[in-house]
């Protein structure tokens, strides 16, 4: 199977890191499924990519949406779980509204979990697949959890744990599951950051296109495995 016959799906692909990842995958010859919660935004992003890019409406917080998209688009070989939200910047852990924490977990953790449940079985059956969790240094004990954004930070810690579990389950199947810390990237979430989405996309796409003997169940930063 070559890049031109492999399908890559990116969540939250209508802007920022997801848009840059989609563009890079398209450049490498993958058939890209561009997903967004809003149909017009998904269609606009796919049209901008051109080629074989396809739009799909996907809200990862919708319990049934990942399976619905799977049935709509067919087999997918690469899933980049990029969709994420941060709602609690500046809130102390002792006073952050639990509702904000719950909403972040719904997207950042359960959304990725739903995507894995929808697409991993098919990858295992076909004997090849790559799943990339777009995580954060704020979710790593080695880096230091962030008390400035507690719900987001803990959600990324949970995403890292999910990465380890999914990698263990798929060991030896031809499917690789890894998490990437892209660093602080200039997006709507971090408009003052110096790193561009295109730079972060290079590392994420590298993880999404690892060779068959590549690592699985690791936390990557700048293409190097770092401690959880």
TrEMBL record:
Pfam families from the UniProt entry: adh_short
Keywords, alphabetical: Oxidoreductase
Oxidoreductase listed as a keyword: yes
SUPFAM superfamilies xrefs: NAD(P)-binding Rossmann-fold domains
Highest taxon above the source species: Bacteria
Family of the protein in this entry: Belongs to the short-chain dehydrogenases/reductases (SDR) family.
Xref: PANTHER family: 5-KETO-D-GLUCONATE 5-REDUCTASE, ALCOHOL DEHYDROGENASE, PUTATIVE (AFU_ORTHOLOGUE AFUA_3G03445)-RELATED
Protein name as catalogued: SDR family NAD(P)-dependent oxidoreductase
């Amino acid at each position: 199977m070559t890049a031109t016959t492999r399908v890559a799906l990116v969540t939250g692909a209508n802007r920022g890191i997801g848009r840059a990842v989609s563009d890079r995958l398209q450049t490498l010859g993958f058939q890209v499924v561009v997903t967004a919660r809003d149909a017009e935004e998904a269609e606009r992003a796919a049209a901008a990519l051109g080629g074989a890019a396809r739009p799909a409406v996907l809200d990862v917080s919708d319990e049934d949406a990942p399976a619905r998209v799977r049935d709509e688009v067919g087999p997918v070989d690469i899933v980049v779980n990029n969709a994420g939200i941060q709602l609690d910047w500046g809130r102390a852990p002792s006073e952050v509204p639990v509702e904000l924490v719950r909403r972040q977990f719904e997207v950042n953790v359960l959304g990725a979990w739903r995507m894995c449940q929808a697409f991993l079985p098919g990858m295992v059956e076909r004997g090849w697949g790559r799943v990339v969790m777009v995580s954060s240094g704020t979710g790593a004990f080695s880096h230091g959890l962030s008390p400035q954004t507690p719900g987001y930070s803990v959600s990324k810690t949970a995403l890292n744990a999910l990465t380890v579990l999914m990698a263990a389950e798929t060991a030896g199947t031809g499917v690789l599951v890894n998490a990437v810390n892209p660093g602080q990237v200039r997006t709507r979430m971090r408009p003052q950051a110096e790193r561009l989405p295109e730079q972060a996309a290079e590392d994420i796409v590298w993880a999404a296109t690892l060779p068959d003997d590549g690592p699985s169940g690791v936390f990557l930063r700048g293409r190097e495995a770092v401690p959880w």
